[in-house]
Design brief:
heterodimer; A: mainly alpha; MetI-like fold; globular; B: MetI-like fold; about 75% helix; cell membrane (chain A); transmembrane helix (chain A)
Amino acid sequence: MKTARFDRLLSGYALLVYLFLFVPIAVVVVFSFNSGRHVTQLEGLSLTWYEQAWTDPFILEALRNSLQISTASAVIATLFGTAAAIGVTGLRPRAQRTIEMMTYVAVVIPAIVLGLSLLLAFVTFADWLNPWLAYLWPGDTPPELGLGKISVIAGESVFGIAVVMIVLKARIAQMDASLRNASADLYAPPLRTLFQVTLPQLGSAIFGGFILAFTFAFDDFIIAFFTRGQSQTLPILLFSSIRRGVSPAINAIASVLILVTLLALLLALFVLTRRGRSTAGAIPEESAQEPPARGGGSPASGTPSGGQARVADPQPERVRR
Amino acid sequence: MTSTARRGRSSAVAAGPAVLWFLLFMIAPLVVLFVVSVGVRGPGGGYLPGFTLANYGELETRLVPILNTVRFSLIGTAVTLVVAYPLAYYLAMKAGRMRMVLLALIIVPFWTSMLIRTYAWIFLLGNNGIPEVLSTLGLADDLRLLNTPFAIVIGIVYNYLPLMLLPIYVSLERIDPSLRAASKDLGADRLATFRQVTLPLSAPGVLSGCLLVFIPVMGEYLIPVLLGGGRSYFLGNALADLFLQSRNWPLGAALAGSFILLMSFVVVGYSRLTRRLAGPLPTEGVL
């Protein structure tokens, strides 16, 4: 009797916390469709504010910069992070620990510290290098190094690489080493094992890491705040307009940002969980689906035990990637 | 032998770019930070090389934001813990099949931009938000919520709840149900079971959750600026002002440098302490 009441109380509490989590975001989205000028009085539905945001050249410029920065840093993070996560397993324990330590630092270091350290480093080095560049440059207008999109990309990638490495590390730990060993036993050169065995198994995790790195860079405010120089990003534009006062147009931009992030996140979640289930001991099932697409595979590949046979099969036509 | 050597080399090549990136854009800038912190302020702001500890001596003048930040971070962490624990308990023990969905729902807002999450509360706490609703209902008049310490704490709880909740959830979820059943069989009531079995066993989760919240809150910039109205001057505001406004880089670097050192001590000391406190706890103390 008493237990039931306690459970009800607890469920009620949980509901309250979920409301606390979602009502603020919902309010921002709802008010972005408000037709009136008044920020806090709902007058009717309209897309006025989206239209206004969409035709504002400053907002568009900031959006373009944000997309460029987050795409570039997510690509860097995915390439370098993936290579490192795979490579680190072949290093000596001490080197492994050092790299793990760096990854850990990249995640826990307060963004504000990283941001202002990068600011100092970039400005100091640009001050040193610019006279040399001017001296050595053949033309009349030497390029000037300084803060800008490049420095923001460099900063965002630090965290991105760490995130990709952490996501992949978890997946590599789950991976069945016997597949790689089988490939090596059957005389596949290491690179071929990498492209035919390791990378396909990691595919979904790599994609998930890319999306996480992208959303982080797209939403980040603090690192860009310090390292951007004169370039504008969407979160920074949003910040300066918030400081001037709330407006319905801010709600519209915020809603677009929320939508982009959530869509990317859902995609990542979908891919990660779907693949996670299928690699957790169900490799045969995967292989059973794949042979038709590959054309005349080995006879064994249709059977449940085909996973290893497929991997081991040394037919040259398999070298596709 | 040669093949392992070759394997080691190709591994090093693969790990190289990431390591280089960390060295160039994380480690080197941190070194630069400490070098600048012992330098001299340039005539128009900026930095001139030098060696002086004067900047660290001058930190005394920034004691207010430091103490402010520590105080708010402690309060914010405590409130977040109080809010998160019952929910983690509910998710781990009562949620049943909905558990994974409910957990995912906790994380979803966390991945939307922190700026927007904080902005949403300006909107809600501002004069036309909750205060107006309350005064229309006749509950409270002239209530000011925005730009108060209360708003800052709300912002901390809202933004960092998942970081507290997830480790607690994990440690609660790992508790063997038979332990709690045994406690009940031995005549302990709900409260006694919670105090003597569940709570001690979830201590590791609580302790790591607190650390995970405390660290980023100490470096917080957006919450005090947007929700505190700049009245409660935080370390983050002080750093941003020193670097971007008054351009006193050496002093800013000294402040940031001591912040890093302080946080490293906190992390190391805290994990030593928790290992001693929570280390031998699982099952031994109960059985």
